[in-house]
Known about the structure:
The complex is a heterodimer.
Chain A: E1 7-8, H1 14-19, H2 31-34, H3 36-49, E2 53-55, H4 73-85, E3 94-99, H5 114-130, E4 135-141, H6 144-157, E5 162-166, H7 180-189, E6 194-199, H8 203-213, E7 221-225, H9 241-249, E8 258-259, H10 267-277, E9 292-295, E10 299-301, E11 308-312, H11 318-326, H12 329-342, E12 346-349, H13 358-372, E13 377-380, H14 384-393, E14 396-397, E15 399-404, H15 407-420, E16 423-427, H16 438-454, E17 462-465, H17 477-492, E18 495-499, H18 510-524, E19 528-531, H19 536-548, H20 556-562, H21 580-585, H22 589-602, H23 605-625, H24 631-654, E20 664-669, H25 677-688, E21 692-695, H26 702-711, E22 716-720, H27 727-739, E23 745-749, H28 755-760, E24 765-766, H29 770-781
Parallel strand pairs in A: 1-8, 2-3, 3-4, 4-5, 5-6, 6-7, 7-8, 11-12, 11-19, 12-13, 13-15, 15-16, 16-17, 17-18, 18-19, 20-21, 20-22, 22-23, 23-24
Antiparallel strand pairs in A: 9-10, 9-14
Helix pairs in contact in A: 3-4, 3-10, 4-5, 5-6, 6-7, 9-10, 12-13, 13-14, 14-15, 16-17, 17-18, 18-19, 22-24, 23-24, 24-25, 25-29, 26-27
Chain B: H1 10-16, H2 25-42, E1 46-53, H3 70-76, E2 81-88, H4 91-103, H5 105-134, E3 138-139, H6 155-162, H7 164-168, E4 171-172, E5 178-179, E6 183-191, H8 212-215
Antiparallel strand pairs in B: 1-2, 2-6, 3-6, 4-5
Amino acid sequence: MAKAEFTLLDGAMGTMLQAAGLPVGMTPEVWNITRPEQVTAIHRQYVEAGSRVLYANTFGANRLKAAGCGYSVSQLAAAGIRAARAADRGEGVRVALDIGPLGQLLEPLGSLSFEEAYELFKEMVLAGRDAGADLIVLETMSDLAEVRAALLAAKENSALPVWATMTFEASGRSFLGTTVSSMALTLTGLGADALGFNCSLGPAELLPLAEELRRWTDLPLILKPNAGLPDPATGAYTLTPEAFAGALSRAADLGVTILGGCCGTGPAYIRALGAALEGRSPGPRPRADRQGLCSAVRTAELGRTLVVGERINPTGKKRFQQALREGDMDYILRQAVEQQEAGADILDINVGLPGLDEAALMARVVRAVQSVCELPLQIDSSDPAAVEAGLRACSGRAIVNSVNGDEESLKALLPLCKKYGAAVVGLCLDKKGVPQNARERLAIARRILAAAEAAGIPRQDVFIDCLTLTVSAQPEQAAETLKALETVHRELGLRTVLGVSNISYGLPAREQVTVSFLTQALYAGLDLPIVNPNQKPVLDAVVSYRLLSGQDPGAGAYIARFAGADSAPSPRPAAGGMDLAEAVARGLRAETAALTERALETMAPLEVINTLLIPALDRVGEGYERQELFLPQLINAANAACEGFERVKARLARQGEESVSKGRILLATVQGDIHDIGKNIVRVVLENYGYTVLDLGRDVAPEEVARTAVREEIPLVGLSALMTTTVPSMEKTIRALRQSGWTGKVMVGGAVLTEDYARQIGADYYARDAKQSADIARLVLG
Amino acid sequence: MEAKLTGIDRNEALLYLGCRGGAPGPDTEAELALCEALVLRTARPRALWRRFRLLPDGSLEGAAFCPAGEDIRAHLSGCREAVLMAATLGAEIDALIRRTQVTGPGRALVLDACASAAIENVCDHFCAGLARELAPLYLTERFSPGYGDFPLESQRDFFRLLDLQRRLGVSLTPGNFMLPQKSVTALLGLADTPRPRRPGSCALCERFETCAFRKEGGHCGKG
């Protein structure tokens, strides 16, 4: 028997059930009800082998996987807990509700929403809790978003301890790209009670991952590996019980205390593991020495200068405000990707605009940004509902920006930061405003720190913002800000955040002042500058500072950025001699933008669209139809034209005019189909011809298409289906549209469709490609 | 046996792009070269396989799986065993294409085509390796659910028998599509003597769904 310092788990359940005669293809959890004695007998073998925590046979007892098996989730889960409990003959065994992946992928890769996943897990949690489970284990997860949904469902609907293990590859990532640090930071923050790995690999391969994990979390560690790697031809696992136990017992030295087996292991493996742990004690666990913020796939480690990109913010930006009002996600997403490519480490997300539902918009933007951008996020709002919506939607560990010294602000936001494990920015101001000297700002920082610690937030997660005031208005305040920053850094030992750009407001050559102030602030101890990363000199200053402050050993990052800079030609687009039509045709975005700006100096915005941009696109379209151009060239041209339209839109937004639209078109990829690249290309082309596109996305139910078409009074609906198997779904959607009383036209497209087929299923038009969809739009909408 | 991605067949990528003969021109060539490099750098190819004895009724021994349809029957005729294989480029490629749709939809399309050619490359290497490993037996071509009359629903059996979600990180949607999208499952026969390549028809071609020739009412001339 292993010492009480270790907790022995059980081994595989599925293979044991099959060995006991479970028919292939049957939902394993059904046996909890029809053959409970068989299930208990397997559990009993594990108890006799030394297991003291039993994973009930509930791994797949969710509504998706168990659909059609004849029993409800609560019946399967309750019977599973009972069958495990019955294996305890006074050994004091703990029974865990076992929760595995749902079997369908969450957005953005799949189409299951976070809320749907949460509800499915919640149903299991309630069933397990009511059936008397002692704890909840989440296992074999490979998507951080999914394990977050499960953990939140467990924590919000029960008081049981929750252990979480994920499945990783030897590369140190899960199949969906989650890193060890992301898993540790996110799940520790959300209040998991133990963390580790299961399945994946054999014990020897999991040890290096456990070694990484313990540097990012202080939680108890779990390992439940497979019996080595499977034989490819037969799928059988290769390690003997003794070899498995020998390799896994080495995890004890790393301080791993909760151990068991996964695929290919049985009672003999657990018995051998108990024997191998006999006489051993867990190795010491030094405190986790690494901290950071993360998305599911990328971690920004604290301890170095981290650039927070400030561009996703409508304040003072007419074009951005318009995008938010019109729900133009693409505009916002481009800002996100651009900042990532420019070198931001974290993105600030601010969507506060009077008249809009900030909480709903925050969740939507956070999700959309995370679908295309890998960076950790900073949720920028002082509205508790918006902050919570953002934190809930955010896969990873975020920063909340911000609280201030006010009691009210601290009370409303700190508990949210604690619940979601977020770091928090504290602004050195309160009801009385911004103190004019460093001492008073320090006093507020102290107050914020005390409140945060009282709320259970560790001091390393409290970042202080000493506030930048505009130097042209208050010339003495720049020095005061730097002094406050230096004092917070030195006296409180806290990390600091600072929105830098504000310093130069109202001055000419702003960049000059901004960069100079940034450099001084970095030397005064600024850790997280909030800046516009698209301004090259700003990032240049950070990269140089990292080199000079020893954060860039070997100068690798510095050299990568500046190698060849001395001889590089001027980056300004050389538009000389080229006209707008040529720039569009060649897909040159910068040139198209510059030439559009030039045209706008002398022409009205609408005139630029109708006499320059659209004809340019038309010429490309004709070339494509004559097969002189390829599809990517057509798309690149459309995309270049998009830059031109952007300039026109920006001009219109500045003039306070509504954006131009030639009419609205609804697009959707039909239910059951997940291929949306074709539909997205049609959208780009249509938008560039001046139409407003309402894009419902992929895998869209017929009723939703019909409902939206009616509600929004859409004159033209475009449907896409790539595969033969989803064309019937397209037909169903057309029928739903016709039956709803809607009177518009339907165009369809997709690889397997033909003109005849399109007629047959009741469409008005068949669009062979994106170009033709624009022709149809012109026919219907003008 | 490791899955590997060694290169991307540019002509194949062009075919996926609907390129109907003619030279692509220097701009397109440069774009292709860039996208190929991106795909090669981003993909995390993985593959696995498992072999089963074929029973006289056409089912796989111990698998509760009897591949349905005339075409798969014909494909496996004269074979003593069947090999199930699956391969994927991983979720990172989907993320790359998704991100690129925001910044440059044209590039996203080229990336998508390059990734389609890339997964073929992974499958070709993997099956060539299998053929070497399984010699002196002979391996047939790949045959995937959805080709000919081999129902797409058979994906369920592939997923069950190969445990693809757990072991390869590939999921199946309710409509039987695989995610990540650049994933392939296939059945291959294993025989004592080389199996003759069966005369092809459009319906049996793996490019059936997306074939640009067929859409135009034409034919590639290979079948």
